[in-house]
Amino acid sequence: MGEVDPPPRKCLYSLMADGPFIAVGGGLAGAAFALELARNGEDVLVLESTAQPKHKVCGEFLSAEVQTLLDYLGLDLKAMGATSVGRFRLAAGNRCAEAPLPFRGAGLSRFRLDQSLLQAAEAAGAEVRRGIAVSSIEPTAGGVTVKTGSRVFRASGAALATGKHNLRAFPRRPSGMVGFKLQLRLQPEALRTLHDVVQILMFDGGYIGACIIEDELVTLCWVMRPALVQRIGPAWHSQAAYFSAQSEMLGDLLAGARPEWDKPIAIAGIPYGYLRRQPIASNIFPLGDQLAVIPSFTGDGMAIAVFSGIAAARAVLAGDSAATFQRRMIRRLRGQFHWAGAVNLLFESTMMHTVSVMGAALLPGAITWIANSTRISGFEEVMAAQGPGRRLL
Ligand SMILES: Cc1cc2nc3c(=O)[nH]c(=O)nc-3n(C[C@H](O)[C@H](O)[C@H](O)COP(=O)(O)OP(=O)(O)OC[C@H]3O[C@@H](n4cnc5c(N)ncnc54)[C@H](O)[C@@H]3O)c2cc1C
Asked: Ligand 1: does its nearest atom lie under 6 Å from the Cβ of 301?
């Protein structure tokens, strides 16, 4: 990773024929990539735009798969305060259906998780620089050039891991949805209703997830049509009033709740269903949300992010091109995306909300089946295929 101007020390890196890589973005995908490379003795630099750890729009529900992957990367989620989740509740209005999850899920804030993973990458030998926003990644003969406002870095390859944020040269087709997140302290009675449960409630214009995370905080994360956001406004008090009008059950949950921040954090234009099929260049690896964006209700985006980071690192170690990595990843994700897209239609159609909940109440096995078919699979390989040069895909 050669920083051309200044300091000169980094010019040495640009002369190296192999090894140095840059992860652009230090979220879950970029950090997993850097950690897996660093602990296999590779030279890797992470450029992360935020100067400090930040909250991210995410339901903070961890599937079994992401827990397995994070354990493989050496993170002890329990020690970090993760809660345990064994049941899924689907609700609309005042109706709800509940079923056991086909695995034990977990709740943990991204604030804590992302910071820990990045620290683990650093401890493994990756260089992490925060407060550096990359503006472009360009392939060059035998390498890549990564530019920020004032600096240029050279490396043998890069990971595009900027998550929800696009670099100008690599756009994704946006969808119409807006995502929000807020952490709250609930009243004890309301908190009890969420013990051991991840809950999704569908409302006219979107859906909202709730999950207990560390320190008995509750993460609320919701997705809304932009027209509805325009109508009710982004302020929490007006959103909460809308939710309470949509569902007494949700109103009860929110009664007396204390938000941890003044206003929810938000992200617009989430490109649900996006799969980056076209390779960018032989040595630019798109990871996480820059590779694939699964509908949020599946709670599997973090697994895809971490898996793609590890798999891309393994591809680098094995000498595979980004195009080969991408082709294999897309093949693996296709089935999961197919089912997630189909179920998403139920979430999008208000007319189907009550029918879906009634169906789920009659056939709780259907919830379990959907939870299984919308997840990334094949995790035995992660455990088995240890060591440099072993492919995951
Ligand atoms: C509403 C919603 C709810 C969700 N709920 C869940 C859930 O409950 N469970 C689950 O598993 N998944 C969930 N997801 C999906 C999950 O949040 C994402 O799939 C996951 O965060 C992707 O990780 P990433 O590393 O690709 O991106 P990110 O986590 O977004 O990380 C990208 C990083 O890149 C940095 N960055 C951005 N631009 C630049 C730049 N130009 N230069 C340098 N750095 C840059 C950012 O600061 C950030 O740290 C949800 C998503 C949404 C939208």
From this structure: yes
User: Which residue lies with its CA nearest to atom 8 of ligand 1?
Assistant: 59
User: Is the shortest distance between the CB of 270 and ligand 1 below 6 Å?
Assistant: yes
> What is the residue with the minimal CA distance to atom 27 of ligand 1?
163
- Within 8 A by CB and 6+ apart from 332, the residues are 376, 377, 378, 393
53 lines ligand 1 (CB under 6 A): no
In the numeric block, which tokens belong to residue 32?
């997993």
> Hey, which CATH number is domain 2-54+110-174+274-346, 2.60.120.330, 3.40.50.720, 2.40.160.20, 3.50.50.60?
3.50.50.60
The ligand 1 atom at the shortest distance from the C-alpha of residue 211 is: 8
Distance 58 CA to ligand 1 centre (A): 7
Q: Residue 391: name the closest of 340, 306, 324, 299 by CA.
A: 324
Tens digit of pLDDT per residue, the chain (393 long)? 555 443 333 333 433 334 489 999 999 999 999 999 999 999 999 999 999 999 999 999 999 999 999 999 999 999 999 999 999 999 999 889 998 988 899 999 999 999 999 999 999 999 999 999 999 999 998 899 999 988 999 999 999 999 999 998 898 887 779 999 999 999 999 999 999 999 999 999 999 999 999 999 999 999 999 999 999 999 999 999 999 999 999 999 999 999 999 999 999 999 999 999 999 999 999 999 999 999 888 889 999 999 999 999 999 999 999 999 999 999 999 888 888 887 777 777 776 777 677 777 777 777 777 777 677 776 666 656 665 556 666
Provide the whole-model pTM.
0.92
CA 328 to chain centre: 20
